Structures are given as C-alpha cells and as structure tokens.
Glucosamine-6-phosphate deaminase (Rubellicoccus peritrichatus), 248 residues
Amino acid sequence: IQTVIYDGAEGASMAVANEIRDIIKERQKSGKNAVLGLATGSTPVRLYRELIRMHRDEGLSFANVITFNLDEYYGLSGDHPESYRRFMQDQLFDHVDIPEANTHVPDGLVAREEVFASCSAYEEAINAAGGIDIQILGIGRTGHIGFNEPGSGPDSRTRLVTLDSLTRRDAARDFLGEQNVPRHAITMGVGTILDAKKVFLLAWGEAKAEVIAQAVEETPTDIIPASFLQSHANCVFNVDRSAASQLT
Ligand code: F6R
C-alpha cells in the first residue's frame, strides 16, 4: 500500500478524479471502455462532484465508461432513498452522459434462492467488461471495504453478507434509527476487489485514523479485511491528515 497524505479531502479527491479522467480519455482514443469500480457513502462525494464538474466544464464524456458498484443493501429497491442505486443516480449518474445500461449496482431485491446466481452473474459481468481498471474504496470503522465485514477472507467473492452492528449503528442516522437499517447486503468480495488493476482507498477524519493504521500496518488478517489490500500490487490510500494521524 502506498499512502499519500493530503491537507484535506478536496486535494485527495481531485487527484483521483484526474486519474479517472486520464484513463477515460486514453481509452476514448482507442475506442475502448474504461471500467470503474465505485463506492457510496460520504467519502467519495467530492470525487463525484469533481467528475461532474469535469463533464460540465471540460466536456469530459462518460459515454465509454462502465461502472460496477461495490454493494447494495439487501431488501431495498433501487428507488428507495437510502439505496446505493439511488445514491449513485443522485451523486453521479444523473449528471453525466453515462449510458444507463453501463451502470451496475447489485440488485437488492433479488429473491433469496436467486442470490447465488445473481452474484455469479455480477462477477461474470465484471469479467466480460474486461475487469475493473480503477476501484474506488472507502473504509468502515470495522475495517470493511465494500461490505466485507470482519471474517471476510481474501478469496471472498460477490455474495450476501450480514452487516456488523457497528456498521449498522454508523448508518442509523441515514435511516432515522438503527432498527430501520437493513441487516444484510450484497457486496463484491475482497477477492473481487483485489482483482482490480488499480485501487484507490479514500479516508477522511479522526474517526478513520485507527482503522487506517491497522489496515496499513498490521499483518493482514480477516479481523481487518482492508488489510488484505497490502497484497495488491497497485493500491494507493489517499487520506487526509486526520485519517493519517495514527500511522507510525
Ligand atoms: C460503500 C461501501 C462502504 C463505505 C464505508 C465508509 O459503498 O462499500 O465500505 O465505503 O462504509 O463509509 P463513509 O464514506 O460513509 O464513511
């Protein structure tokens, strides 16, 4: 893991936006697609705002972009206000020229007996697109990436998971109460994430300082699933000073 410390979230987000712009443009020249793995939550909001600005002010086109989101709450439809599909439409997709068919978010409403097939199909779609060029990640206080909670192994693939109680507590405000937070989610696995060609993990603020230090400095362990990123050959943590404050 290469850790880059920025004064604030703004600069760290800009740097990733520039990388995304570069790969989109490079692929445009050769008539190919750029494949992005995307995250939701508060962390990537500035990044998406900058991508929208590039589209609006610089004419950056997303016509050749294919996206795969990390995860979705199980049981929520795409138009539920707290669904990750809704989040992506609001924060990015509705503001750029990406074809709807190019955007993929796991289906939160798939029937139990179809979950396995649906998750396999998600993995196959990623492979059919040529694999993920750039994967964007946030990190949860449990050490999760996507919704790979403690106990998730490095070979885990897209699947139905149970959310950690700390994760549900952290989401309580968005859902107006912990009792309303879904108990399960569908998430890409740690192995799915590790297959991406390049990974950027973003983290801001004091609340992420401890888990960032654990992910970067501890021996890889499924107690902190983000620590498995240490085995990735091309993984950068873009963090602000607060999130970096417990690194030795
Ligand atoms: C979101 C996701 C999660 C979040 C993490 C941090 O798609 O997969 O791993 O990245 O929970 O959330 P925020 O950014 O809200 O602190």
Observations:
- The domain at 2-240 is CATH 3.40.50.1360 (Rossmann fold).
